[in-house]
Amino acid sequence: MTDTSTPKSAAARLFDIRLLIGGLFLLYGVMLTVAGLFTSSTERAKAAGININLWLGLAMLVIGALFVLWLRLRPLKIEPNPVGDVSELEAARQGSATGGTGGTGGTGGTSGTDAIDTGTPGARRRS
């Protein structure tokens, strides 16, 4: 029962931002929790009697676990690229590079054969 739209490669799963954020929350959560377990009473007194390292470490562990759980429940899905779309995109790219799709062609809307009226009868200046 495998889903064909989920990525098969490890590289596609590795760079999911949820894994990076969840991993960092878990890492810092472990570090703060361990620091909170070894907090002295004088350090707790500075924080109004609250072991802030322990509580923030536990909160970060919960947030990191939620990110990893989200990643496991809703994995990254990559839509396959149909072959026809790639060839149409390439044809459109080639057409726009040669000026075949219309537009100004980079000349600002005037071509070299347009005449500009200078106000003098019979006098024309070419652009």
Structure explained in plain terms:
- It is a single chain.
- By secondary structure, the chain is mainly α.
- It has a domain at about 15-75.
- Helix content is about 55%, strand content about 5%.
- The chain contains five helices and two strands.
- The chain has helices at about 10-15, 15-35, 40-45, 50-75, 85-100; strands spanning about 115, 125.
- A two-stranded antiparallel sheet has the order 1-2.
- Strand 1 and strand 2 (about 125) form a beta hairpin.
- The radius of gyration is 32 Å and the shape is elongated.
**Overall pLDDT confidence:** 76
Any idea what the shape is?
elongated
Strand order within the widest beta sheet: 1-2
Strand content: under 5%
Roughly how many Å is the radius of gyration? 32 Å
Euclidean distance between termini CA atoms: 68 Å
Count the helices. How many? 5
The major pleated sheet works out as:
2 strands, antiparallel
- The unreliable regions are none
The chain-level structural class is: mainly alpha
> What fraction, in percent, of the residue positions are helical?
55-70%
Q: How are helices and strands ordered from N to C?
A: HHHHHEE
- The count of DSSP E runs of length 2 or more, i.e. the number of strands, is 2
